[in-house]
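The material for today's practical consists of a large collection of protein records. An example says more than a description, so a record of this kind follows:
***
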Amino acid sequence: MRERIPVVVQGRRTRRPRAVRALWTGAELAVTLGVVLLLLVVHQLWWTNRQARYTAQDQVARLERQWRTGPPSSAAAPGPDDDGARAPRAGARTPPPGALHRRTAGRPPPDLAYAVLRIPRIGVIAPVAEGTGKAAVLNRGYVGHYPHTAQPGGAGNAALAGHRNTHGEPFRHLDRLRPGDTVVLDTAEARHTYAVVRVLPRTTPGDGTVLAAVPHSGVHPAYRFTAPGAYLTLTTCTPAYSSAYRLVVWGVLRSTRPR
C-alpha cells in the first residue's frame, strides 16, 4: 500500500489593516524624534557647559600667567561682522586665544578677554571680553563687557552680561547675590573690588537705562541712582531657561589696588 506524503499549504500572510500600519509608523517616528530631542537637550545642557567651562578656565589661566610674566604684546585689531560680534579682517593675523593686548584709546579690542570676574558668593571665576556677541564671547563661557560703558574701575557704569543657562552659565546663580556681597574685577593693571548695593529681580529686555552712566530703570522708577560714581552692572536672562526678562545687579566701587 502506497504511503501518501502530506502536502502542507502555506497560508497567505495577512496584511495589517491600514490604521494599524499608520499607528506603527507614527510610533516609530515618535521614538526617533524623542531620541533626537534627547540628544539636543544633552548637547545644550551638558556638552555646551562642559566645553565652555573648559574654555573659560583655560582663558583665566592664560590671563593670570601673562599678567605674572610681563606686559602683553600688541595684537591685530579685528573688524566687525554682521551679527554685532567681531571677526578678524581678511588677511589679518589672528592672535591666539587668551592673547592680551595694549589698549587703544582706553578700549580693549573686541572679543578678546582682558579681565577676570570673581564673585565669591556664587563661585564665579570667569574671563571678561569686550563685546556681548554670542558666538565670539558669551557662548564660550565668557562674561561680555557692554561696549561704550565704563571700563573696570573707571568712573561711570561698567556693565557686564553673561549666560544664565547653557554655554558655561557663569551667571546661573546671579539671583542669589545680596547687598554687601563682593564682586572683583581683575585686570593687568589692578584689582577693582565692588560691593553689591541693589538687585532688580525682573525688568524688560528693552530697559536700556540700567546700563546708563548713572544707572536707573525706566520700567521700575524705584530702582534709581542719582549721583555720578563708579558703578558695576551685571545682567542676565530671567527666569531660568527663558529670555523673557532681565535680572540686574548693581554694585559700587569700594577699592582699587594696583597689581
